[in-house]
């Protein structure tokens, strides 16, 4: 099996630790261990945790807590994984066979189309449209879904646009899948990072053949825990668990424990409030910056996620623009090319506000000279 290069991940891994102004991250600024739990808890509880394998599918308590984020889900519907990335990997691995037909909504994080092709499946693109504020084109979707379609893959809230699908669009998408008995696989890792504080509706529960992925990396500011999950029908979870035996076996016991704390009654609200504050305060700075550029940059303001997808005026290729920004101005942004949408860049605005503002100032200075 050959895999194609995962352009965005490789690009970020290569450059993110070399620049002063990293505007390529997509999550809310990570928190420290000390901000999550106090020292006595670390001493009394965490320090006494046996460093064993733990529950390979995630502890019952963690799975129950995660299930609580979804309507009518129970711990038997949840498999805990090492990040949402592993969750997506397991699903495509278990679901797709060579020659399978899938429809993938684009733009997205681009892990799914790469994996689908790696397993030998056909990944037909259905594009979210900028003039339609990055909403799905349901008529196009209807045309692309055929009786051979095995799965429709979506990312909602969406990376890179920050768009959130309407409930009507979600229901129409499930209806299209239901007509041909296809799976709906929804990456919902940005759920919980909404600017207005209203959690995005989940695909879970809208149709029996839905599989949802999520995790702590984006809305909770805890990517270092590497905790993700799958929510799926019970028999599907059992199948996916057996695939998990071949990858990472189990989530780290320390991460399992800290994830229980993060999603528990005391920390959950605190983290949600922090996320909303950071997103709103920082997005205001981005909006002011866009307004001040006199049309050099335009956007559909994101509704969720710590990412904004910007269309720029100067006629320069996005990879070239990102490379010049990095080399000459020490700023890292993601080129639209990584999403097959040249003429755009993705910026992450969930980080330190001072660095964000200086990064934006440098981007503006650069764009004015191109
Ligand atoms: C849509 C989407 N899914 C999955 C991931 C991977 O997340 P995790 O850190 O939970 O593995 C990312 C990371 O950027 C993402 O944007």
From TrEMBL:
Residue intervals of the Aminotransferase class I/classII large domain: 48-363
Origin species: Candidatus Segetimicrobium genomatis
Keywords: Aminotransferase, Transferase
Gene3D superfamilies: Aspartate Aminotransferase, domain 1 (3.90.1150.10), Type I PLP-dependent aspartate aminotransferase-like (Major domain) (3.40.640.10)
Cofactor: pyridoxal 5'-phosphate
CDD domains: AAT_like
The protein's name: Aminotransferase
MF-aspect GO terms: pyridoxal phosphate binding; transaminase activity
């Amino acid at each position: 099996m050959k895999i194609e290069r995962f352009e965005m991940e490789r690009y970020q891994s290569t450059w993110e630790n070399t620049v002063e102004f990293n505007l390529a991250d997509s999550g809310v600024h990570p928190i420290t261990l000390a901000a999550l739990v106090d020292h006595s808890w670390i001493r009394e509880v965490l320090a006494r945790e046996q460093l064993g394998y733990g529950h390979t599918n995630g502890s019952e308590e963690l799975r129950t807590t995660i299930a609580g984020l979804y309507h009518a889900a129970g711990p038997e519907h949840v498999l805990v994984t090492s990040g949402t990335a592993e969750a997506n990997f397991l699903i495509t691995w278990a679901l797709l066979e060579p020659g399978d037909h899938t429809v993938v909504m684009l733009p997205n994080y681009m892990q799914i189309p790469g994996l689908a092709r790696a397993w030998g499946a056909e990944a037909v693109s259905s594009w979210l449209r900028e003039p339609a504020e990055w909403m799905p084109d349901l008529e196009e979707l209807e045309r692309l879904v055929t009786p051979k379609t095995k799965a429709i893959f979506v990312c909602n809230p969406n990376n890179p646009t920050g768009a959130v699908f309407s409930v009507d669009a979600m229901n129409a998408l499930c209806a299209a899948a239901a007509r041909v008995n296809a799976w709906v696989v929804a990456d919902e890792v940005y759920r919980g990072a909404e600017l207005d504080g209203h959690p995005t509706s989940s695909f879970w529960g809208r149709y029996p053949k839905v599989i949802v992925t999520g995790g702590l990396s984006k809305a909770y500011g805890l990517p270092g825990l590497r905790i993700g999950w799958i929510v799926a029908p019970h028999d599907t979870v059992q199948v996916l668990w057996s695939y998990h035996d071949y990858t990472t076996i189990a989530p780290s016991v320390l991460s399992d424990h800290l994830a229980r704390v993060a999603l528990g009654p005391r920390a959950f609200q605190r983290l949600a409030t922090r996320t909303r504050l950071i997103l709103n305060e920082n997005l205001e700075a981005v909006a002011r910056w866009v307004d001040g550029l006199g049309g050099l940059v335009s956007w559909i303001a994101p509704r969720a996620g710590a990412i904004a997808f910007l269309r720029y005026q100067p006629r320069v290729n996005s990879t070239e623009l990102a490379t010049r920004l990095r080399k000459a101005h020490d700023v890292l942004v993601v080129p639209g090319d990584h999403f097959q949408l040249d003429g755009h860049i993705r910026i992450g605005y969930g980080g330190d506000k001072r660095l964000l503002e200086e990064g934006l100032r440098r981007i503006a200075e650069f764009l004015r000279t191109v």
